[in-house]
Every structure is written in structure tokens, then in C-alpha cells.
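Section 5.1 Outputs to date
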Amino acid sequence: MRRQVKQLVLDALYRSAERKPEIIPLLTGKAAAFVKLIPLNRAALERKLARVITSNQRAELDKLLRLLGDPPDLSRVNDEYWQNGWRSLQADIEPVLVETFVQQAVAMLDTISIGVDWALINTNAVRWASQYSFELVHGITDVSRRALQEIIPRFYTDGWDLGKLRGMLESTYGPIRAEMIAITETTRAATEGERAIMDALNRESGVQMVPIWQTSNDEASHKCPICGPRHGKPIQDNMFPPAHPRCRCWVIYDYADNIKP
């Protein structure tokens, strides 16, 4: 019962901050610390990452179309193009992931009263972002490559011109996909930043904190078959947000002694 009551209070605070963000600077104590963790404060980072990806992919599409030529020929697009493309995208994405990781770690630190080694947190942020951005951009590039291989034959079978080809490739290289990636990966970086603080807390003090899943405060999230049933419940299977593309779920932590039925 105690946990359910606390969850109702947190949900109400989230709704209030969402409806009237002007109250956020007026909050103090635990309420202020809690509000710093909610996805409302990640929106700017989502937009920043989406802009970075959109700009990069727009330039890559222009370069790709020049390489393909008229009429387009896939054999002109060699492995060097794809390798240079993912390196460029990683260089653009990685700093935003580091910024998100650290920002969320700072917000999480405000909710606890025990100090941690900040040098280690920053080192972990850079290490995680470097490793994960490498995996991320390879995945993005692989999807783009497969899409190109599927779309180019249709240029000939369906009688397209280059304008039509570019329009078809926009779904892969355009802002809609960039936004989806940005939302998903901002959630991931924020979650990793929070987990880094909790891991440091456990190492340095032995304090055990329990992660509790929180859905974004909208009807779609509550009805999500993956995230909805997890709302307000301790995470026991080591599955953390994001659970799916465009997932904006988040996590709060509570002392193990407070987690009672």
C-alpha cells in the first residue's frame, strides 16, 4: 500500500509539471529532485540529437545520390562510403549521448544524499557513449544499406526519376527516422546515466537501491503492452528503458527497505 500511495503522489506531480512547467523552478527538496528526472527535461536533448542526426543524414543522402549517378548504379557505392558514413555519424552523435548521460546522472544525484566519484562518472559516460554509439551507428547504417538495396531496383521496374528516388529514400534518411532514433537513444543515455550513479553509490557505500519503472505521462504509454504493465513496479528482470522505439519511459530509485507490497 505504501508504494502504491507514493506512486500516486509521483504521478500527480508529473501531471502538474507537465501541465504547468512554470511551477518547476518553484519546487524544492525531493519534489524538485524528482521533477529533474522526468522526460519533460529531456525534450531539449531529444531535439538536439534529432537535429544532429537529420543534418548528418541529409548530407549523407546528397552524397549518396551523387555517387549513385544518373541512372543510379549501386556498384558505385563502395564499402569506403559506408565506413566513412558511420564514422561521421558517430562523431556527431557521441557528444550528445555523453551530455545526456551526465545530465541525467546529475539529476539522479540530487535525489540522494551520498556523494560519488564524479571523475569516474564522467569517465564512464565517455566510455559508454563511445562503445554504444559505435553499435548504434552500425545499426543505422546497416538499415540504410538494406533499404538502398531494396529501393534501387524499383527505379527501373517502376520507371522512377531521380526526384522520386530521393523521395523514397527520405523515409530512411529523413527527419521522421531521425526523431525516432533521437527519442529512443535519449531515453537510453538517460537511463544509463542514472544506473551509473546507482552503481557508484552501491560500490562506495554499500547502499542498495531498487529501480522502479515509470511510463511517460500519456495515454499511449499507459496502454503500451510492453511498458504499461511495468508502470510503478520494481524492475526485477534487468530490462530497462527504452523497451521499444520511441520509448520515453524512465526510472526512479528507492531504498530496498521502502519497497513493500
